[in-house]
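Methods — Computational structure assignment.
A single polypeptide chain was analysed. Its primary sequence is given first, followed by the predicted tertiary structure written as structure tokens.
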Amino acid sequence: MRSLLAFFLICLFILGTMACGSSSSPKQFCDTVCIKDTIRFMGKHALEPELGLVPQDCGVDSIWWTYEGLGAYRKSDLGFRDVKLNPKFIKCLFRDTSYAFLLFNDCRTGRGYQVQIPITKTGTYSKRSSGINNFDTRFAVAEDMVAYTDRGNIYVEDVATGKKAMMTFGQATDMDYDAIHETLDSVNITSERIYVKIKLNGKWEELDKKITLK
């Protein structure tokens, strides 16, 4: 009888362990929601630059933008079709009618994305999948600035002025942008300073640099 009871208890323990293991899953960065309505952003310039995200199949299909006097809407694909979005983790920064930066994070991985959009008829449309966006609570980036990395450096820009600065890590890393905190633990960026905690050669190091935006 005791052996049967012991066997029963062991089975319960094993089953419980298996159940716990099967129910655990990686925590998502944010909740994915079904986007049904156009998401609009408006700049503060007198010519009223505006940008909209067009929904399709619960996600974002394309971008349009315009401003007073342009006489038309310009359009482009978002460029990142596999990204899962939540409107709470999307923002847009305008530099008058020159360009806008659309910033967002993937809800599944937390990976930061940035799209630079020329609002006027000239300029280059560009995109990055290595954005350091302040939606991530470990990344403190001044509200009017954008920052991104190329695995060996951090680049920052003040959107209102277009002035830029950078910090080097001193070496290239094997940073995985889908699991960025395995290499880049935290960041604090202002118009005067860049601080990072980063893993270099298997050890966590803190780098701090005073910068001058130019």
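Note: Residues 130 and 148 are 6 Å apart (CA to CA).
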